[in-house]
Design a protein that fits this description.
Elements (H helix, E strand, L loop, with lengths): L2 H5 L4 H18 L2 H16 L4 H16 L8 H71 L3 H28 L2 H5 L2 H16 L3 E5 L7 H22 L4 E8 L2 E8 L6 H6 L3 H15 L3 E6 L5 E8 L4
Length: 317
């Protein structure tokens, strides 16, 4: 833990004690030092993921404790004003945190758009340029074959078959990298295409079901496609599953998606807390969903498979 991160650590008990102390001090002297301390307490509370409602309850408790000392009638208005100023300073840290979060999400959205454009360019290059090179290789082999011995022709035919397989795999990878079916037909056909490709490569049965077939906003289609792609990658790498099911449905103004397998299962909290490779898949999913204002959670037990629940609001794109 860095010194800066360590300086943001504060227990709820210490926060309560410090809050009440600084609040009483501010009611007495109304100094800028106490306001600065209020802001710092807000920063620490925000860093500890202490909610606004908890802060309001803490402030109410501190105000009640201070009022027990007894105030003159003519002091009440002044106390109320100072109390509001103190709470506003605490909340200003939350407001800055909220703005920072939205700025980060906006930057991530822009970065994802740039990455998708680059993936699209690479996918086209793999499909078109590599395809042209393979065609040129086939033509060159045909020329060589004309003057080759029967034995050499047999070897050349083996090479031709290998080139055909390479072309097939390159075409498949280019479509998965940036599937044209996603642009042309939408999310559900693209996920079916993805599942079919993964299933063929891994011999893992993947069933895709959907209760809707309408087009969604492009950002949501791309984001959900990448989330399901990452989820299927995690399943094929780690789950040792025999069957996988992907389900999509619409509920009101939300898109719900689940990815379920019957593999070995895992402990979600342990995986999410890791900084290593095992945690990267779920972290990548979380980052994708943050941009869409979406959420996810995982249900899994050792030996009982896992189920990923994804929720994305239709206004998230």
């Amino acid at each position: 833990m860095t010194p800066q991160a360590d300086s943001m650590q504060i227990s709820k008990t210490d926060l309560t004690t410090r809050y009440e102390s600084v609040f009483r001090s501010y009611l007495k002297g109304a100094t800028e030092k106490d306001l600065a301390e209020a802001y710092e307490l807000g920063r620490k509370a925000f860093a500890q993921d202490i909610g606004i409602l908890e802060i309001v309850l803490l402030h109410h408790s501190a105000l009640a404790g201070a009022s027990s000392q007894g105030w003159q009638h003519n002091e009440v208005q002044r106390i109320a004003k100072l109390s509001g100023q103190f709470l506003a300073e605490v909340f200003s840290a939350y407001e800055l945190g909220r703005r920072s979060y939205h700025d980060t999400v906006s930057s991530l959205r822009h970065l994802n758009e740039l990455l998708e454009q680059e993936l699209k360019r690479i996918a086209h290059a793999v499909h078109d340029e590599a395809g042209q090179l393979l065609v040129a290789a086939h033509l060159a082999m045909a020329d060589v074959m004309c003057g080759a011995t029967p034995r050499m022709r047999g070897r050349l035919r083996q090479v031709a078959r290998l080139l055909d397989q390479a072309e097939k795999h390159l075409r498949q990878f280019s479509h998965e990298l940036r599937p044209t079916v996603l642009d042309d037909l939408g999310l559900v056909p693209a996920i079916r295409f993805l599942a079919n490709g993964v299933s063929k490569r891994t011999e893992l049965p993947i069933r895709v079901t959907s209760s809707f077939n309408r087009r969604l906003p492009p950002a949501i289609e791309i984001g959900l496609y990448r989330v399901v792609q990452e989820a299927l990658t995690n399943v094929t790498r780690h789950s040792r599953a025999r069957n996988v099911r992907v389900e999509l449905r619409r509920k009101g103004e939300k898109i719900l998606c689940t990815v379920q397998d019957d593999g070995v299962g895992f402990d979600p909290q342990t995986v999410l807390s890791k900084n290593g490779k095992k945690g990267l898949g779920l972290i990548g999913i979380q980052e994708r969903l943050n941009v869409l204002k979406g959420t996810f959670h995982v249900k899994s037990q050792s030996g009982r498979g896992s189920k990923l629940f994804i929720t994305v609001p239709l206004g998230g794109g």
